[in-house]
Amino acid sequence: MSAAKAADPKAAPKGGKKRLLIVIGAVVLVLLLGGGAAVFMMMKSKAAAEAAAAEEEAGGKPAKKEATAATAPVRDPKTTPTFVPLDPFTVNLADRDAERYAQIGVALEIDDPKQADVIKAFMPVIRNNILLLLSHKTAAELMDHAGKVKLAEEIQEEASRALGVKVEEQDDGKTKKTRKRSPVGLPITAVHFSNFIIQ
Question: At residue 100, does pLDDT exceed 80?
């Protein structure tokens, strides 16, 4: 028995060394496979980018990522737009079958920050024009997306009228803008809703 016990301690270190070598080999193998997969993916994405660039140069359609970037509005990073928030509007709507009202928050987007003072000077007229516009709308006109987009365009026109821009309808349905008063130099580029509740 003493000979068997003496043989076991010598056998245990040899078995432990074999296990350690197997574990180290497995770790190295996993690292090599992971590195190979990473290199393969990088080469694949580089080849796809080169193919997309070559296709675009040849007059083909641009890659999907580039197409979505091109459709998004591009702003000049040097010029930051200025937003002039208006006090929220609460107005009764023109629905005849039920009493409905709308609570709408509006912000005007302008290119020139200096023109914010001009908007503030004309604020009573701007608010009046927008309130009159809203009071002629029905809930059905304002519920869907197209109605909200149309309302934003109409608010832009009414705010421009308050600032001295005369908006005339042409025969082809497009609008033509001319100055009625002295030029105020205020380009209202967009109208944004911060709140839109219809009850």
Answer: yes
